[in-house]
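A further point concerns the way the authors explain their paired sequence and structure data. An entry of this sort, consisting of the sequence and the corresponding backbone structure tokens, reads as follows:
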Amino acid sequence: MSSKMPETPEKSWLAEKLNVKKLQFYHGVVTREDVQNNLRDCQIGDFCLRSALMKTETVLRIFLCVKIGEQEIVHYLLDFKDEKFVVKQEIEKEGKGKIVLDSPVFKDYDDMIQYYRHHRLACGIRLRASIPRPKYQLNPAKIFYDKEAGKLGEGNFCFVYRGKLRRSNGREEEIAVKVSKATDHNVDSASIMATRNELFAEAKLLTAIRHPHIIKLYGTCCDSPPFLVVMEFCTGGSVENLVKNMGKDMEEYEKQTILIDACRGIRYLHEKKCVHRDLAARNCLISADGLIKVADFGLSRALLENQTAFKEALKEAPLAWLAPECIQKESEFSTKSDVWAFGVLCYEVYFDGRKPFEDEKDTGIVIRNIRKANMPTIGVQSITPKMDEMLNGIWTKKPEDRIDIQQCLEFLVEALVPGNLATIKRMQLNKLAGVLRKKMANTDTDREETEMPCLLNKSSSVDTRVKLLRKKSSTTAKRRAKLEKKKSTTAVEAFLKSDE
């Protein structure tokens, strides 16, 4: 890339001159909840530094965060003056209520740490170990992008650029960088933090997700504004653009392969109890190896342990993709509303990017049709009736009558028309710059393992350990079978290379 990440003047955001960004235990501009999560498995006395925007100020203030109980963390403000600082500590004084005490003056962070390893803080705790920032928090000096030539688009809260991430071994990877808006010093701190929180909501969800058909999160940068989210770059663009530009020349095998890929990604999300809420062709991207990746998790929500749905009013609703239960004052979202949207995605792929009721100008008519589940069919666009059979199971008025995403995958695999190595080679997505698909559609319908314990606790019951070991043995057997399948892919690669 031709230009490095824009630097925000150090004196503007972090007036302190002690190079806090260089410290491994500086966690950046994070919330109290973030610190709670970062120190969750730590011991009493473990600590980190964070910064925050004060409501009436335009500079970041630094806090010492110390774990003092199982669920309790104190946040002490570091008050700087002339490149030195004191720790502001609030205590209860009998007869005087709460008062703030100043620590001795410290010349640097190490000075403070050494002092409080031998002396108690106001909370009665000595400092123990410094806790490094999470691995997904990246060094902004390793991220490069061009604000002029590299712009890919923008959303409500961020700009998106094409860039590069330099790894510790010197290797560079292509990335997509989301850069927060509202970081000007004339903007109030509440707006800046709101922008940060919206941008990081998607990243927070993706930190727990890894799947070949879901966009990959590399990490975030939150040292100071502007805030960054760094993601996998999909050189093929969106499925929406693909089907609009090349859909007419696309064979049905390719259309079904695209849908199988997307379906597998959504199935994994649902197994992780996550509702996407914005599934559409525009949010399915094409990687360099021609795989479809579900992306844009800005509206996504993780369900609670015993939760199957949640209600929420939508300000800007993408009407064409909404299920009947979502078109009301308080919309209800669940994995079944995602399934409805998946049906609309199928329609988009088969009708060259068009959506249901696209020519209908009367919104009221569209709403009435959706509420009645009076939806169009694929019909002669498919050579197999199985596609419409699947849509009949998807587009039902009541979510409880709707098939789930696993059943969608089973329908798609059963409906898959014959294909071979030549079919792959003829795929329209292989005409996209930088894209080469070598894999045929994955027809394995077995549910995937979403969680596998790394080790067994000694306290686990014998029955539990036996079950887990059996599960591990079964998983190992499946992996062996997949390795055998993988050997056959060399024939695909050889075929593709032979005509390059």
Summary: The chain has a mean pLDDT of 86. The radius of gyration is 26 Å. The longest strand covers residues 60-69.
